[in-house]
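A.,

Following up on our hallway conversation. Structure tokens first:
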């Protein structure tokens, strides 16, 4: 009898799951944006939009009999949870320090300090104490509430899309493809003006945002496959949103050209996220992973499916 060698990663099924996921994601995203438009920007409508990737992943999993455990629900090892929190700080802090020391933005913004003193009830404390307390509140205390929103995306992007793409096209291509899809998914909000910046050309915003999202997508994919868990990616996503949108951006005062450099639609974050993405990219080939299906290795190129040879 001839021996049959099967592809370990199930490429054909992964391809079908990918196509189904994209179709479902498109339907749910369009529906969510229509609801948001009619709701007039209520928080609940934004939550529905951010949950559309997770909803598409869950439905696609059920329809294709993919175990929901494959999303990666294990909250350990703890070191990867810590990595998810630290990594956004590693690329955001030097980016903003560079903005501050070059005079492209000034720090601290008096408006930020005033609001922080009011919210934290710190009317007389020194500025540096208020700043440290605000950073801790945003990045630690507010982490769990922020993760409710980030999980809505991460269950879809890194819980479903990245593992299935890795089975089909290999890890490195999966990083680029999933990051590009993630970036494109934000386009309706950016083009509609509900998500983005002001004071800079739209083409410039899109270029900076796309590069930053694809780069962080590589890091998030590596973190998900390396840890075998969705939680480090969810923590990284939530921490990124918190410190960029609620701390580093608001604490930086505009000096004229600041908007060209700060935030997700400025250039300052791009080189630092690209450097971190390159580090993860280079380590992908020999990185050990523990997936929901057992121990293995990140597949940098798809493994071929070999058809059974006919018996002679």
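Then the amino acids I'd put at each of the 312 positions:
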């Amino acid at each position: 009898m001839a021996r049959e060698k099967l592809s370990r990663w199930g490429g054909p099924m992964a391809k079908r799951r990918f196509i189904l996921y994209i179709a479902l994601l498109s339907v749910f995203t369009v529906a969510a944006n229509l609801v948001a438009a009619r709701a007039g920007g209520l928080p609940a409508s934004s939550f529905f939009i951010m949950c559309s990737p997770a909803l598409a992943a869950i439905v696609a999993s059920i329809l294709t009999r993919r175990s929901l455990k494959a999303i990666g629900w294990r909250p350990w090892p703890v070191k990867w949870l810590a990595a998810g929190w630290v990594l956004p700080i590693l690329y955001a802090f030097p980016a903003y320090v560079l903005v501050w020391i070059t005079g492209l933005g000034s720090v601290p913004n008096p408006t930020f300090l005033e609001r922080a003193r009011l919210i934290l009830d710190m009317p007389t404390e020194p500025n540096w104490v208020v700043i440290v307390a605000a950073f801790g509140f945003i990045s630690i205390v507010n982490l769990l509430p922020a993760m409710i929103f980030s999980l809505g995306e991460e269950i879809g992007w890194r819980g479903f899309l990245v593992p299935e793409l890795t089975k089909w096209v290999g890890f490195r291509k999966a990083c680029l493809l999933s990051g590009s899809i993630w970036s494109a998914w934000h386009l309706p909000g950016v083009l509609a003006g509900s998500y983005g910046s002001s004071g800079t050309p739209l083409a410039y915003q899109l270029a900076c945002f796309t590069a930053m999202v694809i780069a962080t997508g590589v890091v998030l994919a590596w973190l998900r496959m390396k840890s075998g868990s969705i939680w480090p990616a969810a923590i990284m996503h939530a921490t990124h949103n918190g410190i960029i949108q609620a701390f580093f951006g608001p604490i930086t005062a505009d000096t004229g050209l600041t908007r060209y450099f700060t935030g997700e639609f400025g250039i300052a974050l791009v080189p630092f996220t690209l450097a971190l993405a390159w580090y993860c990219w280079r380590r992908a080939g020999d990185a050990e992973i523990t997936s929901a299906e057992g121990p293995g290795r990140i597949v940098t190129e798809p493994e071929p499916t070999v058809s059974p040879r006919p018996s002679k």
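The first helix runs from residue 11 to 39. Curious whether your intuition agrees with the design.

B.
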